[in-house]
Amino acid sequence: MTVLYRGIHRHLFAACLFAAALGVLGAGCKKDTGPEPTTPGGETGPGSTVEISRAQDQITQARCDMEQRCNHVGQGQTYANRDACMTQIRTEWKADLTFDNCSGGVDAKGLDECLTHIRDHECGSAISNLERVAECTKSQLCKG
Predict the structure, then answer these.
(1) What is the separation, in whole angstroms, between the first and last Cα of the chain?
(2) What is the pTM for the complete model shown?
């Protein structure tokens, strides 16, 4: 009986040690939720900024999200497909998307508000240019 007891005890001890090691390894893991917005100096948090090129892409995507929601993207529509929408919006809004005087980048919070407004924009009322959207003016978006 004592040999059987020692064998069980040894296996139980090894199983507990293995479980503890897995717990320690698992505790060090963190889910990657993507990059946080950063300021030009690399800090994160309140007052953070987004690179201008990324902001330009996000604004164009938001506009095409709205156009798609309003059934303006597809065969026989204003935009033949998503790529055509992205290309045409970038061309139409080229002047609005330059952010020439945004030496400090684009304000992340302001950009989020702008993107939400564009995506939720009422179908039937066109957005002729970015400056007509109050949440998307350069004064709302530019840092520095």
Answers:
(1) 79
(2) 0.66
Q: Between 136 and 42, where is the model more confident?
A: 136
pLDDT for 91: 93
Angle among Cα 82, 71, 83 to the nearest 5 degrees reads 5
Q: Where in 2-63 does DSSP place strands (E)?
A: 49-50
- Over its C-alpha atoms, the chain yields an Rg (Å, rounded) of 26
Separation CA 52–CA 46 (nearest Å): 18
Residue type, 38: T
Question: Would the pLDDT of 71 be above 50?
Answer: yes
The amino acid that residue 95 corresponds to is A
Q: Do 99 and 52 form a contact (C-beta atoms < 8 A)?
A: yes
Q: Which residue has the tokens 């530019």?
A: 142
d(CA 83, CA 105): 26
